[in-house]
Every structure is written in structure tokens, then in C-alpha cells.
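Complex 550.
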Amino acid sequence: HKPGENPQTRPELREQHLGATDGQVRTRFPPEPNGYLHIGHSKAIFVNFGYAAHHGGKCYLRFDDTNPEKEEARYFESIIEVVRWLGFEPWKITYSSDYFDQLYDLAVELIKRDKAYVCHCTQEQIKADRGEKISAPKACVHRSRPIQESLDDFKKMTDGYYRPKEANLRMKMDLTDGNPQMWDLTAYRVLDASHHRTLDKWKIYPTYDYTHCLVDSFENISHSLCTTEFIASRQSYEWLCDALEVYKPKQSEFGRLNLQGTINSKRKILQLVDEGYVSGWDDPRLYTLIALRRRGVPPGAILSFVSTLGVSTAASNIQIARFEQTVRQYLEGSAPRLFMVMRPLKVIIENVPDDYLVMVDKPFHPKNPQLGSSQIPFTRTIYIDADDFRLEDTKDYFRLAPGKSVGLFQAPYPITCTSYKTDSATGEVTEVVCRLEDSGTPPKPKAYIQWVAEHASSGSPVRIDETRIFHPLFKSDNPLAAVPDFKADINSNSMEVIKGAMVEVSFWPLAKRSIADALEEARARSAKAKAIPGAGSHDADTPQITPEQL
Ligand code: ATP
Ligand code: MG
Ligand code: MG
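Predicted structure with magnesium ion bound:
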């Protein structure tokens, strides 16, 4: 449908809306600042910003900050940062709390129109009124009280006369409707919480059901795009706009993105963080956007992934493997590849002199010469991965074993194992002795392996204190099905730590370049964060980047 086409109770509202927006598309991405964004949100970001951009319209970033008990400043900052990291610039950054005064005035108006009442029922009573089966509920005694009484009582709620749960403003909807979203939803509740922006001004806070549609209306949103769990809410959304005779945006729903084998809910991710299952919201085993950033997933790879999903109402349950495959494809053209041996095993090449040195020109990508190359030394002492050597040879094994030859990636000749040394106590192989097949007709290797050479004067190899390999955090594809809860599905060996790995010498120049880039990016981010009203930055002038964060 076209912007503003949703039937209005008063047609002039549509004209006003089109006047305010010039007929342009207006969307909003409305996160609740109660956690960091995850991969699922990137779909909502893509849909809202993408739809507006595609139609030459505008998209707001709106913080839906009506739950002061759960909201924290760090979440606001991170959300803005991550939206920008994904490459989107909000037309305006707004907060539901910007409209608390307007929302309050409309609540008073709603009572005056006999479409809201102050209710003193307990949660249990409300539940009991709804009956055993979910059917049309009974009206409570407060529903029919005089308008003036509710107005006075609402004033008392506002003035802090009531404790939380003692009074709620409820909308007088339609108890005979089959949709529970029409059963007198709460519009305002009393909360004993200080709000990060309005501080202690308010004792009452509006609910999502009351706030969302009205703020969409205030902001002249043309397309209110949300996920399918809000289908039933569309009716209450429209009811409230009509009840107050304000411009009524059109809500449309799209399916959520659920990545399988992980948790796509802020509340549950928070539990993993709080209970120490992961090191923080940016732990590389999580699928929050800051965790993906820390893992080195480029924003373009995430967008390329969500752009393949489509925006039908079907929820997309996607295997992690499909996501990782998209990321790998994306990185294929841009990421340099280095030699690394995780568990180094020393190899002595017996038939070359002590000072043997060949500088090998090694491309950063075997099939992509534009990525450039590095110069790495090849010497008498090299290291291979312990997994690439076996004492017992078998037919289907093509790497190194006593008497067997193997190729070394990019090295001039293959090597053949002539003997090996073991630790007299443990029997473990400590050193392999090989011959460089540099004369006659060298054997044709059936496999090639990675290696790094010992060459002190060029700083080779680079020794890595600690290498972390991240395996899936959950054992199954569907942690939510685990009993008693998703934590029972946690893989207790999801982080493998390896000491003493070795990497080729071009590691340092590349690492320095990415640290410089990361610093630059962080500086730009913190400069922008400072420009956000109300989101006081806790960064100092110079961002502190630790290797942890990289
Ligand atoms: P969570 O369940 O993780 O707390 P939420 O829906 O409560 O998520 P909000 O902060 O309200 O999180 O989300 C902001 C927007 O992002 C909403 O429009 C919401 O529908 C959308 N969104 C959240 N999760 C997903 C998802 N998995 N796929 C697509 N959109 C999502
Ligand atoms: Mg929400
Ligand atoms: Mg939520």
C-alpha cells in the first residue's frame, strides 16, 4: 500500500500525514535498550532502513525506553554504534520517552472519552476474570466507574499515591472480541524506578501496547514494520489510534530470523553473560552483533546474509552453517591467508647446511594474486603441525610418516622423513628428521601441509601465547528444546585454548594494520557517540583497545 493509505477514522488525518512527510516513506527501527543487538535484529535493521532507502524515504532509530527497570546507558550507545557499523545512518534518533508528556495528555483524553479506566485488580484477579480457558473475560468492577473517578485516580497514580501494582490504567476495549489483545490492555502502570532520561519525574510509565502505535503516529510513520508475533497486536494498535482519532500508520509484519544452534533473545543472552557461561556480550561464541564484529565478521557479510532471507511472514530458521558459509564466501576475496601451526612439531632438514636460507614468495591467497604476497624464510629447521605426522602409515594417509614424502605449501621441494626422535620418558615424538628432495626426480607429493621456519633474524616464526578456538556454544540445533532449560544444552568444551602455536612472520605487519584500522574505527565511533543526546559516552578521548577486543 502507499504511505498513509490505511483507512482513517478522520480522512483529514491522512492529508495532515502526507503534508508532514511529503508523501515519503517513513519507517523506524524501535529497539528496547535492554541488551545488545543480535543477528536477528540485523534483519529488522535491514528491513526498516532498507525499505526507507529503497523508496527514497527516511528511517528513525527510536529507543523504546518505557521499561526503566531493564534499561542501561551502555545498551543505548552500543545500539547506535552497531546500526552505524552495519552502514545505516538514522534520519533521527528519538526516544519513546521524548513523548511522555504527549502520551500522558492522550491518556487523560482517553479517560475523558470513556475509553480508559483506573483498575485496582491484582494480576490474579485479572487472570481469574479471563477464566480457565482463554475466552471472553468478565468485566471487573472498575470498568464501569464514573469518568471523573478514573481521572482523579489517574492523577493519584501520577502523584505517587499508589505503590506498583496497586493501580493500572487500562484501556476500555472490547471484551467480547475473540482477540485477547482487545481485552482491556494496560496503558500505564506505577513503577518505582528512575528513568535514565526523565530521571524521577514520572511515577507511572506507559506500556508497549499503549506507546508504540502512538509514537508511530506522532512520528508520521508510514509503514510500521514489525515481526509476526505482533499480528494480534495490530488490532489493538488500530483501536487506540482510532479511539483517540490520531493518524493511524499501517502495520505490516515480517518473519523473525532465528539462527539455529544459538540463542536469539536478549533476555537469555543476558543470562549466559550474568551466569558466566560466556565472557561477555561480545564473546565470540555468541551471535550478538558486537560478538560477530569481534570475530572479524565484516558488516557487509551480515547484510549479504540477511538480504538473501526475504521478508515474507514465514519465520526463517537458518542453520549457523549457512550463515558461516556466507561469511566465508564474503571474506574469500579480501582476507589474507597465513600459515599457522597449532601444535608445532620440529622438523630438521638433514641434507642442507646450517645457514640454508631460501626466501619464499608466498601469495596471501593461492587463487587471488591481487591480495599480494609475503616473503617468508625457508630454513634447515621448520615446524609443522603435530597432526600432520604419524608413526603408523596407512593407505589413505598422505601426510608425513617415517619413509614417506609430503609437499610443503609454496616451498621449493617436498621432504621425506628419514628418522625421528622421541622423549625417552613419554615416548612422544619430539623431532622429525627429513631429507629435502632437491635432486634427481623428486617424488610427487599427494598432499601439501603448512609449515613455518625458524629464522631469528627475520623474526620467524611468530610465537602465539594463547590461541582460542571457538566451537559451538550449544550441543544441539535447538537449545530451547532442552530440559529443564537451554542451559542444559551448553557444550562445556566450546572454547579450546592452545598454547604455543606459531604463525608466519607476515602476521605482525597485518596485525598492526588491523589494530590501526580498529583504533581508527573506535575513534570515529566514540566521536559520534558523543554527539548523541542523552547517551553520555563512557569512553575517554582516546579509545582503549585491548587485544581482547580485537
Ligand atoms: P529479544 O526477544 O531478543 O529481546 P525483542 O524483539 O524484544 O528481541 P526489540 O529490542 O524489541 O527486541 O527489537 C527491536 C526490533 O527488532 C523489533 O521490531 C523486533 O521485532 C525486531 N527483532 C527482534 N528480534 C528479531 C529477530 N530475531 N528477527 C527479526 N527481527 C527481530
Ligand atoms: Mg520488544
Ligand atoms: Mg524482548
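Residues 507-530 form the longest helix (24 residues).
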